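2024-03-11 09:14:02 DEBUG pipeline.ingest accepted 1 chain
2024-03-11 09:14:02 DEBUG pipeline.ingest length=196
2024-03-11 09:14:03 DEBUG pipeline.predict start
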Amino acid sequence: MSDTPKFTVIDRRKIKAEEEKDNEQTPAAESVPSVPSAGPQLVVNEHKPVPAAIETPEEPAQPELPPAPTAQESETQKIAYEAAAQRLDDLVRAQNPAMGAPPVVGFEHLVQQFYVSAMIQMGAGAQEGQRPRVDILGARQTIDLLAVLAEKTKGCLTEGEDRTLRTVLFDVRMAFLELTSMISLQGVQPPPQGAR
């Protein structure tokens, strides 16, 4: 029995519409060379030239996005959303008459949401006596999202919004630095013997 896996790789990239027509006219036996099945094989249609764009792509291919909704679709959807949210508010207030109107969501709420997410990912908010659960990579991504938000909104925020965003970004970065320092001091522990 051979240790070499037996499989065939077939290049099925579509290059040009004209070549596809040529391919339909060419019998399949001509495009697949006969190679003994002793090991892995790469079967390529040799008569097809590979364009330079495929050989050395300059940018990764962007996935095709669905068409954006029209202005009318967006407006209709917004009205339906607001009506559904109002019905939900009415149901909640019916259950709790003393409750006031919900606060209007603003930019500060978005920044607070990122802040809370990053801090929880770094282990804040753990129950007393429980070991905190840390998602350091998730925290890093959340902090990077805050940085993107800061960059993309530069010059468009009120003074208060800008100060809140800069302060939160500073705080979560400092917490991240402290946490990564503690992790690097502990070093990476090997997995337990039986965990492999």
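2024-03-11 09:14:41 DEBUG pipeline.report The radius of gyration is 29 Å.
2024-03-11 09:14:41 DEBUG pipeline.predict end
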